[in-house]
Amino acid sequence: MLEATVKKILQARVYEAARETPISPAPILSRRFSNQILIKREDLQPVHSFKIRGAYNKMAQLSEAQRAKGVIAASAGNHAQGLAMAAKLMGVKAVIVMPRITPEIKVAAVRGWGAKVVLKGDAFDAASEHAQELVKEHGYTYIPPFDDIDVVAGQGTVAMEILRQHSGPIDAVFIPVGGGGLLAGMAAYIKYLRPEIKVIGVESEDSACLKAAMKAGKRVVLEHVGVFAEGVAVAQIGKVPFQIVRDLVDDVITVNTDEMCAAVKDIFEDTRAVSETSGALSLAGLKKYIQQTGAEGQTLVCVNSGANTNFDRLQHIAERTELGEQREAILAVTIPEVPGSFKKFCRTIGKRMVTEFNYRYADEENAHIFVGVQVKPGGEDRQAVIERLREAGYPVEDLTDNELAKLHIRHLGGGRPKSRFDEEVYRFEFPERPGALMNFLTHLPQDWNISLFHYRNHGAAFGRVLVGMQVPNGDRTHVEEYFDKIGYHYWKESNNPAYKLFMA
């Protein structure tokens, strides 16, 4: 199968649409990590992602009869734009079914390439089902985003270019993983020609379908998929890609939201390119690999797989960057409610930059402050700050890895009810579409009172929402039954220390 895949890669028709993208050196990163770090620039494709390669190669294999009837795909992102461009170049009708939550910038980009956009459903599954219905109704040919050998072969040309462009030693190549098409194509080519090169897949930790499959020895379906890196938000690795990669990949690394945001900044500082979060995924994995292995003096290559990000997401990305670099500690500290307490607290911290400070009067004895402190990467310096504060007599809660604190409390900290009352607090992911809030409220019993609500638009397909509710005692055990009917992902946060310190 390996040899057959490599032959398909060598025969792939991609350059009628795709460009041979350069490899950019990353001098700042290279100095910082004592390795030669190189970035393959797929963000420079006409559709700003590698997806044009697989989409065009698949369409090039279609018969005249198939092209005459047109092509279709379900996609909320880069595959949609790749297919739309490929279809325009070939003069083929293209229909793209997109969820209604798809950001308008992506809908407009697909229409800009001449494709017909059909908005259907609130999630990818509903769009995919509708696309299959249209296939039966009109005879369109469905062009899959990753689970197809011709798509895999098209994506594999990225590796072909890397090995041709950099003839010197390469120790490892880091490749982002969603459905696995890019990883499968690149791994097949690299391992066939240069088996000594490590091939490492990188996944978002909340959509790690390949890691789960490798552990189980078979493909599995994730119960929940995070949407922050929407370009790789896939619940199950593709069948064709998994058959190829299961014996070729040396390792799979997972990274979190903050680490991806930090990698977006790194790419910008070295190349001035603004990557999407999934586009920076492989660099985040590369950095984690260095930290875990202590690698020095090696040549490491990663793929900037795309740059289709909404401008209004950049504020949120920048906000999380320092945490991703482990250069900021987020702490909840209790200080006496007396004049001079803040000055004494700052003196205890020493000559460090205070990056954030949130406070609201709570009672006459103590004040709970939400504070950000600049620290050195690695975690040891953060622990040193915490220990120093505790030695000075301050109760400290480390919130650096607390999602509720980072998404909501830092913007709400200190708001409290005047009198004590019971409430249940949940964190939700609402689809970014009209009617999402009304759908939520409609499913709640009429005698439940909304006591807290916080929402921020991050320019993504889903919004992060914090909700507090006063629930009659008799209904408390049935709260989550109502939420299950609504269908939005949720997390109970009533016992979260960040909520208890600043909002309860």
From TrEMBL:
Keywords: Amino-acid biosynthesis, Branched-chain amino acid biosynthesis, Isoleucine biosynthesis, Lyase, Pyridoxal phosphate, Repeat. Its cofactor is pyridoxal 5'-phosphate. It catalyses: L-threonine = 2-oxobutanoate + NH4(+). Pathway: Amino-acid biosynthesis; L-isoleucine biosynthesis; 2-oxobutanoate from L-threonine: step 1/1. The keyword Transit peptide does not apply. Belongs to the serine/threonine dehydratase family. PANTHER family: THREONINE DEHYDRATASE, MITOCHONDRIAL, THREONINE DEHYDRATASE, MITOCHONDRIAL-RELATED. This is L-threonine dehydratase. The lineage of its organism: Bacteria, Pseudomonadati, Pseudomonadota, Gammaproteobacteria, Oceanospirillales.
